[in-house]
């Protein structure tokens, strides 16, 4: 799509401002629902099991069915709808700055979330909460930007994304504790998957830090962060 669609779009692209506003607010609202729904079910499981250990070391016998994992599946499905971001950018002939990061991120995230579900990856629900919270803010910003509403908190969009990835690194500590604590003998679900996801997050963190510290002259042309 990235290589062939631009050849079919007229010079200057299509004017899709109304579509873009609706799309961004749908994503912001959808992210809010996912965030609140997952948070509620996480709280229910904590009350039921009287522990938070499962967040950092998921049981290897856990099923990816039920209320909590419903939100993981819904999150996975939402990643395909987010590909509309790329489609709209190409139809408008208006590639955002750092478009390579945009494509890299949106192409690989559905694979990573499928990996979460396939291997019942530890920390996936905390990752889901962080990602959807950031997306509530980010897509609201995008929608307001198209409407020319002042958004003085623009830089916090990227900063929140960086905090998200730094947090994922910090949470490695309790995961390692539960994984290799000899007296407990804990074995966590999706260990390999977790470290693959960690490596992916490191690449995103490196790229987002680069976006944040892009010279101001480049930022003046407009910046649409990709997460």
Automatic annotation (TrEMBL):
Pfam families tied to this protein: ELO
EC number per UniProt: 2.3.1.-
Recorded catalytic activity of this chain's protein: a very-long-chain acyl-CoA + malonyl-CoA + H(+) = a very-long-chain 3-oxoacyl-CoA + CO2 + CoA; an acyl-CoA + malonyl-CoA + H(+) = a 3-oxoacyl-CoA + CO2 + CoA
Annotated TM spans: 20-40, 123-144, 156-178, 198-216
Locations listed in the record: Membrane
Broadest EC class assigned to this enzyme: transferase
GO CC terms in record: endoplasmic reticulum membrane
Highest taxon above the source species: Eukaryota
Record's bilayer topology term: Multi-pass membrane protein
Major site of localization recorded for this protein: membrane
Gene Ontology biological process terms from the UniProt entry: fatty acid elongation, monounsaturated fatty acid; fatty acid elongation, polyunsaturated fatty acid; fatty acid elongation, saturated fatty acid; sphingolipid biosynthetic process; very long-chain fatty acid biosynthetic process
One of the record's GO molecular function terms: fatty acid elongase activity
Keywords: Fatty acid biosynthesis, Fatty acid metabolism, Lipid biosynthesis, Lipid metabolism, Membrane, Transferase, Transmembrane, Transmembrane helix
InterPro entries from the UniProt entry: ELO_fam
PANTHER family: ELONGATION OF FATTY ACIDS PROTEIN 1-RELATED (PTHR11157:SF134), FATTY ACID ACYL TRANSFERASE-RELATED (PTHR11157)
Family: Belongs to the ELO family.
Protein known as: Elongation of fatty acids protein
